[in-house]
Prior knowledge:
Blueprint: E1 16-21, H1 36-39, E2 44-50, H2 53-67, E3 72-78, H3 88-95, E4 104-111, E5 114-121, H4 124-138, E6 144-151, H5 156-163, H6 179-194, E7 200-204, H7 212-232, E8 240-244, H8 257-263, E9 266-270
Parallel strand pairs: 2-3, 5-6, 7-8
Antiparallel strand pairs: 1-4, 4-5, 7-9
Helix pairs in contact: 2-3, 3-4, 5-6
Amino acid sequence: MTTRVNHGWRHGLRALALLTLLPLSGLAQTPPTVPAAAANRLPVVVSGSVPDEAARQAILGRAREVFGADRVIDQLGVGSNLAAPPNWSAQVQKALQPVLNQVSHGHIAINGNVVEVNGEVANDATRQQLPQQLSIALGNPTYTVRNGLRVAAAGQELVDAALANRIVEFERGSAILTPKGVTVLDELAPVLMKLSGRKFEVVGHTDANGAHAANVALSSARAEAVKAYLVRKGIASLAISTAGLGPDRPVADNNTEEGRARNRRIEFRVGK
C-alpha cells in the first residue's frame, strides 16, 4: 500500500492531500488467521507539499501511527505559497484511518473540504460503510465524502498469487520483455485462461527518472507489450485493456536503486 500526500491545489488557494492505496500484494498466500493489516507490509510513501512544517510533521506522525513507522517513507515537502481551510492538517490526520487498510487499487484524496475515496473493497457492506466511517471520523459537516469504492472482482487473488510479488521485467528504457519477464507472463497466462469471460486491465508504471511525459509513454508501451504477449498465449485481445501511469503511483522510494526497481512494474487488475 502506498500513501501520498501530494501537491497543493494548482492555483495555490488550497492544500491537497492524496492517499494512494495500491494492491495488498501477497495477501492471497497469507493464512486466514493473520489479519489483513498485519499481512500488508508494503511501504507507505508520503510525498508532495503541505502549507507548513507543523502540518508536515503532524501528517507524517499520523501516518506512522496508523501504518507503522517502519513502513512510512518521507517524501513530504513544504510549499510556502500554499494555503488551506481552517484546521486542514487536523482534518487530514482524521482522514488517515486504519479502515483504509481494507482498500486496494485505490486512493483517498482530500482537496480542500472534499474527500474522495476510490478503490476496491471485499464486499458491498464495506463499500457503503467505509465512507460513513470516514465522515464520522472527520466530524465536520463542512467536509463532504465522495464514495468511489467498488467491490473487488473475484479472481484477483488468483492473479496476485500467480505473480507472487514478482515484477514483470523489461530491458532498460524499452518495452522489450526480459527472459525473467517472459517467465512471469508464461506462468500468469494459464491463470487468466481459467478466468475466461472476465476483463483484465494491464497497468504500466515507471520510476521517476527522466521526463514525466516520456515515462508515461514508456509505461503505456510496456502495458501494450504485455497485452500483445498474453494475446499470443491465447488470451482474447478484447478482454485486455491497458493504461500507463508513468511515475505517478510509486510503491517505494525513488531516491534508491532498489526503490526505483520496485516502481518499474506492471499491475494486473481483474474486472467483471
